[in-house]
From TrEMBL:
This is Nucleotide pyrophosphatase. GO terms for molecular function: hydrolase activity. It comes from the Bacteria.
Length: 272
């Protein structure tokens, strides 16, 4: 059965900091309403390559989106394009690189910041273009899209955790406190989303290191959280979910075709 899916990508969130600092999400985990997995990012552990990886299931070295400066549309089928083929409604509150990958490149803020165009792969998009755009504003943007357009697939992508990591590093009070703040912001919305029966995935593209950057193979750069919330998930403990399987697994939840996309069957309930 098709369900509606909300995918939250908390940019630049290291697994251990997510585990230690996000008390609301961990409360859902302790009470059995959510399950937290540790997931390894693909390489390089950088943003634009991994947005493409999460949203198409294709790792950077194959997709060709191998660094942050490649400004072009994705050439692969994404959750957005596949959902549109199935006549599903798509929306995103996200950094402008997402608009560049799936709607139009290069980004022109006057044209693209507020996108309401039913012919685009991302039909309803509010995109931002400064890394310090406040997470609480971004969540309001996302909730506005959800309430106005009732999307089947909604991507929510705040940037403040990554921004704080670039300024202060992994092992800093500022980075950890930003994760705590974002956890608290999410707590305003998750009760309603859960009540309304959404299947929710909360993850990150990559982690962060003590050099105030990321990109390589250090565990702190690669290990990211994956929380899943909702009745369509198996909630099995100790799963290794490949980052490349998020796309196919989300397509499965949306009950849309996902030919050539890998799927993590163990993550989903009733999938053999
Ligand atoms: Zn970053």
């Amino acid at each position: 059965m098709a369900t509606k899916v909300i995918l939250v990508i908390l940019d630049g969130l290291n697994y251990q900091v997510a585990h230690d600092c996000m008390g609301y999400l961990q409360g859902l985990t302790e009470s059995g309403h959510a399950t937290l997995y540790s997931m390894n990012s693909e390489l390089p552990s950088m943003s634009r390559p991994l947005y493409e990886c999460i949203l198409t299931g294709i790792p950077p070295v194959i997709s060709g989106i191998v660094n942050n400066n490649i400004v072009r549309l994705s050439t692969a089928e994404s959750i957005f394009s596949l959902a549109r083929k199935a006549n599903k409604v798509t929306a995103a509150a996200a950094y402008y690189w997402v608009s560049e990958l799936y709607n139009s490149a290069p980004y022109q803020p006057q044209r693209d910041r507020f996108t309401l165009n039913s012919h685009h792969p991302i039909q309803y998009g509010y995109f931002y273009h400064t890394d310090h755009y406040p997470d609480d504003h971004l969540l309001i943007d996302a909730e506005n899209l959800r309430q106005r357009f009732d999307p089947d697939f909604l991507l929510i992508h705040p940037m403040n955790i990554d921004d704080s990591g670039h300024k202060y590093g992994l092992d800093s009070a500022q980075y950890r406190n930003t994760a705590r703040r974002t956890d608290s912001i999410l707590s305003h919305y998750l009760p309603t989303w859960r009540e309304q029966g959404y299947q929710i995935l909360i993850t990150s593209d990559h982690g962060m290191n003590n050099d105030c950057s990321h990109g390589g193979v250090l565990p702190e750069e690669r290990q990211v959280p994956l929380w899943v919330i909702g009745s369509a998930f198996s909630h099995q403990p100790d799963l290794r979910v490949p980052q490349t399987a998020l796309c196919g697994s989300i397509c499965h939840l949306l009950a849309i075709e996902y030919a050539n996309k890998s799927i993590c069957k163990a993550l989903l309930k009733g999938t053999k």
